[in-house]
Design goal:
Length: 431
């Protein structure tokens, strides 16, 4: 049986006996996979650009629920129904829109059938040790069901906050969203916190036929935090998944987004940005499995790296032999604002079908001297001019968010980060 010595992020022995059969089996398998795999090192291909030594050295204690969570100012005006996860514990539930069912995951042994059938069905634990640890250890979280045919207009705002006072804590929030056939909804996921902690989060998405889910995530964690997150989706025929992820916080973050397109005529969009400064390390990893024909995927990620920040982008599109008529696009662009900033980019296509249209690419650049000169020649101070150019660069990704109120909230979050970190960034030599 696993303990803290074998799984360093665990703060208690996982419950692998005595519960419901489905959950006991799920946790036992997760423990076995985590113990067999161990935490990844630089020799692990998928993690070779991200050094986890600082994380491995931690000895975290269990996280306990805390007080009310405050919205970030950029989301203050967003009309949404709120759910709060504080240190992994569900602490607030607003009245949810009609057509939405919610179940807390503090005691999933008694969960209804739709939870038992879907929890752990999408986020695989065998090759993903942090997902395995979350599956073994989660003691809270939330499951949402968007009922068949429901058109939910009010966004659901999920605030995930982790608080550490004095000691490093570890939280393992778990989120399951089941969007049944023909249903539509928007989920906004915001991660914040205070102090030194590990937020090891897993979000599973099951999207039914003819369904649509907008899923928008902001990672604005504490500057001392470690943010390790897995978002895993399974999409059925004629469905639409619209994802946007913006990372601005944490000393080290890894945002992994994986999906299986398991039906025809799926529209799958994952776009986002990573904004880093100081000594921040931000790793984005995506995987799109085109398992069926006639599907389209679009991916645009834009990074801004200042000071000594390090960005990583690893994106892979897999087109299986029967997935003819696949249309896949992937692009990562990075803007370096200092000579010490660094980006590792690894776009990848693996194609086994012959009738496809797929492209991928990566670019790295600096602010254009001509554009900077143009603004300064019109009386705009250099710092302000630089901020304007960076904002325009980031907006290209933000503009892909489909819902205007949500788009403006993310635009404000990016602007807040730039106001704090870019306006004062010293010009590069020769600028």
């Amino acid at each position: 049986m696993a303990d803290k010595a074998t799984l360093p992020l665990l703060t208690a022995t996982p419950k692998t006996e005595g519960g419901s059969e489905w959950l006991t089996k799920l946790r036992r398998k997760a423990v076995e996979n985590a113990e067999r795999t161990g935490l990844p090192g630089v020799r692990t291909e998928a993690w070779k650009f991200t050094n986890l030594n600082a994380l491995k050295a931690l000895e975290p204690v269990a996280a306990a629920g805390t007080a009310e969570i405050a919205r970030l100012s950029s989301f203050a005006d967003l009309d949404a129904a709120e759910l709060h996860l504080s240190n992994g514990t569900l602490t607030r539930v607003d009245d949810l829109p009609e057509g939405v069912e919610m179940v807390g995951l503090a005691d999933p042994d008694d969960a209804p059938d739709w939870v038992a059938q879907n929890l752990g069905s999408v986020a695989e634990t065998a090759p993903h040790p942090f997902t395995a640890i979350n599956t073994a250890a989660f003691a809270g979280g939330v499951a949402l069901r968007i009922r068949k045919g429901a058109a939910v207009e009010t966004p659901i705002l999920l605030l995930v906050d982790t608080q550490a006072a004095g000691e490093t804590v570890a939280a393992h929030p778990r989120v399951l969203v089941v969007v049944e056939d023909g249903a539509m909804a928007d989920l906004v996921e915001v991660h914040t916190g205070t102090g030194a902690y590990v937020n090891n989060a897993v979000t599973e998405l099951v999207i039914g036929k003819d369904a649509r889910l907008g899923h928008y995530k902001l990672q604005a964690e504490s500057g001392e935090a470690f943010h390790i997150a897995m978002t895993a989706a399974r999409c059925a025929a004629n469905s639409t998944y619209d994802n946007f992820a913006l990372s601005t916080g944490a000393t080290l973050s890894r945002n992994e987004i994986r999906a299986t397109l398991a039906g025809r005529h799926i529209e799958y969009r994952i776009n986002g940005g990573y904004l880093a400064c100081g000594d921040q390390h931000m790793d984005t990893a995506t995987f799109i499995d085109h398992a069926e024909p006639d599907c389209a995927s679009h991916e645009l990620y834009k990074g801004v790296l200042a000071d000594r920040a390090h960005g990583v982008f690893q994106g892979k599109i897999l087109v299986r032999p029967d997935a003819q008529k696949t249309d896949g696009y992937q692009m990562n662009r990075a803007l370096l604002l200092s000579r010490e900033a660094e980006i590792n980019s690894k776009p990848e296509l693996e194609i086994y079908a012959d009738d496809v249209k797929c492209s991928h690419g990566a670019t790295v650049g600096e602010l254009e001297d001509d554009q900077l000169f143009y603004l300064m020649a019109r009386g705009i101070p250099e710092e302000r001019a630089r901020a304007i150019l960076v904002a325009a660069y980031v907006d290209e990704a933000v503009d892909h968010i489909q819902r205007e109120p949500i788009r403006e909230a993310f635009r404000a979050a990016a602007a807040d980060w730039m106001q704090q970190n870019i306006a004062g960034t010293p010009a590069k030599e020769g600028a």
